[in-house]
Model the fold of this input.
Amino acid sequence: MRFDLPEWGERASGFAVRYNGAVYGYLNRCAHVPVELDWQEGDFFDISCQYLLCATHGAHYAPDSGRCLMGPCAGASLQALPVVERDGKVYLIVKD
Done:
């Protein structure tokens, strides 16, 4: 699920994914070069559904930590966003 983040500035977006039954949220920005990860809007996983994939650079990220495991930013991480799931819906936690 992809969503806009107007408080982060123009064209900033985030996304949430379910992996091994848990939900994780990240800023939609590659750790290598600040471009959005999804090639097709909302499509974040590689073909095996084991990694989040930057469609531009081929970086592979662990869905449960955001850590880059393969690619030009190995060792760097996606910026996590605080999300919570309640009653089957996912919410971004926004602090004042």
Q: What stands out?
A: The longest strand covers residues 13-19. The two ends are 24 Å apart (CA to CA). The chain has a mean pLDDT of 90.
